[in-house]
User: Fold these one by one.
Assistant:
Number 1:
Amino acid sequence: MTKEELLEIILNGENSLVEFKRDEISPAKLAKEVVAFANFKGGRILLGVEDDGTIQGIQRDKEQLERWVMDTVFGRYIHPRIIPIYEEIQTDKGRVAVITLSEGTAKPYVVRSKDREDYYIRSGSISRQATREQMARLFESGGMLFAEKLPVSGSELESLDQNRLKGFLSLIGDKETPENNSDWQDRLYQLGFFNDPTKENPFSTIAGLVLFGYSPRKILPQAGIRWMAFEGDEKDYEALDDRTLDGPLVPLKIASPAGRFETVNNDLFEFLFGAMQPILSKVTIGFDDSFRRERHWFYPIDAVREAIVNAVAHRDWTRNEEVEVVSYSNRLEILSPGALPNAMTVEKMKGGQRSARNPLIVNVLRDFGFVDARGMGVRNKIIPLLREYNKTEPEFQATEDYLKVIFYKGKNNQ
């Protein structure tokens, strides 16, 4: 970093990626700032700068300060270990030490001090202790917690559709059907759809409820899909359609005498497509001899289905919002709650990298044929289908709160 680059950073002030600290800061307080950045998107800590941007400078010699930062602060207080970039820049008003951190790949990071472990996150220009919900997201983003296996308070065995469960067991080749409630609880526990049946109040897990529950939203409010449609290109008070759909993610499958599986009841995705059809398609009359009436979709239907299934399959269940699908005059937006998991980025996703936040849900959806067997639907299906259909590119917006996929209509589908 040059002196000019440093002075420009100081001129812009503190923000979510920059923190100013005096030279005499305690190791525990510096560790707090480091952990908050590592649990966020990374950032820079400038030692020898006042909160108002005044350069105070550092008094300790370079070797002494660097050893203190690397061995004392990073070596003793921060867990798991993370290695920063340390450099010092000489200015006209004194030396400034710059500690640069990338986003941590082993979240959550903690400050270990006095037999305690404290979790911190970055909120604007402030580092603060993480709430219970934020800690859950940190554990999940680091792959140490699968929220889909958390029990849902208030659920019970009767909350799940046993016929759908029987169809699933047949589909995966399980020839033994549980005979009573106790056997069902044991079998579902083995599959990850129920918590420990030996507990006084056993509950369905999130995965079990959203996959096979009669009405998951009655117990888990963030389940289901919010569908909205607007006449213009922005949200308005007057919507063409606005409803939240509820139901199990998988259909009821029954094995026929010939050994084939037939769908006899629809799933949440089919409920949604039924609601979307009048808005996202139109009926045309062909010009062949039969004058057949054909339905023309404004977007490639397989790409839309893939994006919606992905939004549900990979959503963050620690967040209280439901998946949103919103139609505008010129585009379709599909929003999945939660940041991308496990250091995933949009570029990695488009390149074909895979990182399932909810592997149990994803595997069941794959059993039912909803999910691409190779897990590369973005690269191999969504992008090429949209290019072929209307010569447009899907847009992906990833934030700390959501992943949004945007499909544009294209000139031929206005």
Note: The radius of gyration is 26 Å.
Number 2:
Amino acid sequence: VLFTHRGLSGPAVLDLSREVEPNDVLRVIFIPGVGNFTALEKFLIRKIAVHPRQAFHNLLHGLGTPRALAKAILAFSGTPSDVRAAELPRDVRRAVTKLLVEGVPFTVAGVAGWEEAMVTRGGVALSQVDPKTMESRVVSGLFFAGEILDVDGESGGYNLQAAFSTGFLAGRFAARKARARKP
């Protein structure tokens, strides 16, 4: 997940963009594997007992959270980032623990429009294309490749790989068909 001046981005968000609607709530867990609420709360209580004068965001940093993110999580919970661990009220500690376990909620305002689209969705149904040659099963001599096909892969190069592979097949078999037609 990337934070931009306009909102969230990055591979995970791009993958979700085909499914989300305005007002959906996305929850981002910034520290994977922190366990359940009770286990994390007990861990934080032990850390606070050992380091009561330490700023609470530094305790979160000790969990692997970047300092700026730890401060942002505290700010999201309405807590000053410089609060000392021992001064953190129980209800605030529990609210932060809940955010860490369940994820920080972000309400979807909308997705970027066509002008910023990175991939397309929809296209020629794969059932209408011979997967060995990429030739149309409806119109002889018509070949398809890339995002004209109804292929919707996850971010990470899958759509590019599909475009390259189908382009190779379509080109190869279109050339063969063209050579076969020459007198």
Note: The chain has a mean pLDDT of 87.
Number 3:
Amino acid sequence: MNDVRDELAAIAGNLGLADFRRHIFLCAEPTKPKCCATESGLESWEYLKRRIAELKGQGVVGIGRTKAN
């Protein structure tokens, strides 16, 4: 069991997940648009990417983002 934990911790470390203080899951490109229209989701995703980059430039770190379906 410790081997699995160590392996997962190593993967998370390589991805920088351990540094996240916040993680945003955004419905951005659904296969079956139930949560939002695909166009709206992609527009929101692009805004989120830009805004996180702006915040990072201002010294705010630890925000992750993931497209959710």
Note: The beta strands are 22-27, 63-68.
Number 4:
Amino acid sequence: MEADAWYRPGTVPAVVSDPINWLLEARVGLVVTVFTLLLGSVVGLVWHAVAPQVGVVAAVNGSAAATKPLIGDDLWLALLGVIAGVVCVLVLRLLAPHVADGPGALVGLALGGFLGMLVAARVGHLIGHQDLADIVRTNFPKGGQRAVDLVLGYFDFTVRAKAVLFAWPIVSVLLSGIITWIRALNQPTPRGASPYPGFS
């Protein structure tokens, strides 16, 4: 059967144009990604400020309670990633609602969210790493750099559960998809029109 045999005899096959402006979507994706990267550095600063700090001196002396913040570090970053994902979606919906439902915005939220978490983890690590190194040097001056490296190998301020890095992109993509779905449900198809372009 020929490809256009399903058309009625004597009619001209409908030409369906691509409704997506791919150049615009690429620009949207780039802008959203850059915005999330900038926000990622802020998240990293906040993460270091609010996450529980390991009592390095007590931990080195054998206190198990002093090491509990190691778990809290990852949980706090995950929570901040969730909040950042929601913020990104809301900002996008408020500032550019006409492009928020497009594929460019979705790619930007996913890719930018993941990169934003990497930036946040790196910024927080660099600040926390230096703080802990200074504490070790102050309290164990005779150990030198070897003591610093040994202690930080166990208690450094860093991401241990790598899965938390996906909190931001997953939340932002899911929330954006839910909003898009709800908006589609609230836009009834005109009477007599086909919901599929080019097949009315």
Note: DSSP finds six helices and no strands in the chain.
